[in-house]
């Protein structure tokens, strides 16, 4: 991680843990918003007006949080407005690295070798972890935001002035229900699989495992009435948040993170739902199973010999 702008120690997967050995995720540092007119958003400062070719996303295909932002960029048809660079899937001693792995790129804007360099460009005295996604502003050469939940929401609305940009993923009449279900899915699934995987006590693992499968069971039931998406016919940001975990489930969480009561394939409604979202225009390009497997199985603390499983080869 970075301490006062300098990279310290080898990269470690566990960010922090509580007294019971439960994994705790770091909170994000840059919380500014792109808005239609450059006025400040819900948090942070203003000055980030929606403009073509001004912003760039740095992502990892392995990362579910970064993948949310990639999906929304596709769903909102923003691919010609906002560029993307994908990092290598394996975490190095200095965190995310650019270039070399098939499907990854080098940094076209700043010539950085590691993502942590973007953080020190944005704030030379920064302390904290250098996470993806990073939403970069080419004009002021800084990080607008590194919290995927914010990025998903700002991309849903900020570029409305550029024509019809796909479905409203956060419609006002569903906002409260979306916020509620987002929170449940984040705590009991998106983050809980990591809590199972990185648990350092049996109790912490058991608790996380139970939350993961109770949540999957409830979602499997919810989809039993044949609805296309979580709230019916309309795709929302909650579907994006659920999809990114489901699509990694059999490839990474089931094996490496020991979330192995049931595979996704054994939950027919959730499996069909995942494939339905995967078939939406542009979404398959945001999912790279090779990166997902190579990335998760490169975490030495969980897989010291670095063997990458051959399967599964499809979702
Ligand atoms: N709150 C962040 C979390 C992002 C996050 O944890 N990204 C992970 C990859 S999945 C990361 O970059 N980890 C590197 C590290 O922790 O050093 C978000 O949702 O945007």
UniProtKB/TrEMBL annotation:
Domain GST C-terminal, first and last residues per copy: 168-296
CDD domains noted in UniProt: GST_C_Omega_like
MF terms (GO), sorted A to Z: oxidoreductase activity
Keywords (A to Z) from UniProt: Oxidoreductase
SUPFAM superfamilies found in the cross-reference section: GST C-terminal domain-like, Thioredoxin-like
Keyword Oxidoreductase in record: yes
The name this protein goes by in its record: Glutathione S-transferase family protein
Known EC number: 1.8.5.-
Top-level EC class: oxidoreductase
Superkingdom field: Bacteria
Gene3D superfamilies in alphabetical order: 1.20.1050.10, Glutaredoxin
């Amino acid at each position: 991680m970075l301490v006062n702008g300098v990279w310290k120690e080898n990269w470690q997967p566990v960010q922090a843990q509580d007294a019971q050995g439960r994994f705790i995720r770091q909170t994000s540092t840059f919380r500014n918003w792109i808005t239609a007119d450059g006025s400040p958003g819900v948090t942070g400062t203003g000055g980030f007006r929606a403009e073509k070719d001004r912003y760039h996303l740095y992502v990892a295909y392995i990362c579910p949080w970064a993948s949310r932002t990639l999906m929304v960029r596709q769903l909102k048809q923003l691919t010609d407005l906002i560029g993307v660079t994908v990092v290598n899937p394996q975490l190095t001693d200095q965190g995310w690295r650019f270039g070399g792995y098939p499907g990854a790129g080098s940094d076209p804007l700043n010539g950085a070798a590691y993502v942590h360099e973007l953080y020190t460009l944005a704030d030379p005295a920064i302390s904290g972890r250098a996470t993806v996604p990073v939403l970069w502003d080419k004009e002021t050469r800084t990080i607008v935001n590194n919290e995927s939940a914010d990025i998903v929401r700002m991309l849903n609305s900020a570029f409305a002035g550029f024509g019809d940009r796909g479905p409203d993923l956060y419609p006002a009449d569903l906002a409260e229900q979306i916020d509620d279900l987002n929170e449940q899915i984040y705590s009991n699934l998106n983050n809980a699989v990591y809590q199972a995987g990185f648990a350092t006590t049996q109790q912490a693992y058991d608790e996380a495992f139970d939350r993961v499968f109770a949540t999957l069971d409830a979602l499997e039931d919810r989809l039993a009435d044949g609805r296309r998406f979580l709230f019916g016919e309309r795709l929302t940001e909650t579907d994006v948040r659920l999809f990114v975990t489901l699509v990694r489930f059999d490839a990474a969480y089931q094996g490496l993170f020991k979330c192995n009561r049931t595979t996704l394939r054994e939950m027919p409604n959730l499996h069909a739902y995942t494939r339905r979202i995967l078939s939406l225009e542009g979404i398959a390009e945001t999912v790279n199973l090779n990166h997902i497997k190579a990335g998760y199985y490169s975490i030495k603390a969980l897989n010291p010999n670095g063997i990458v499983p051959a399967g599964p080869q499809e979702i």
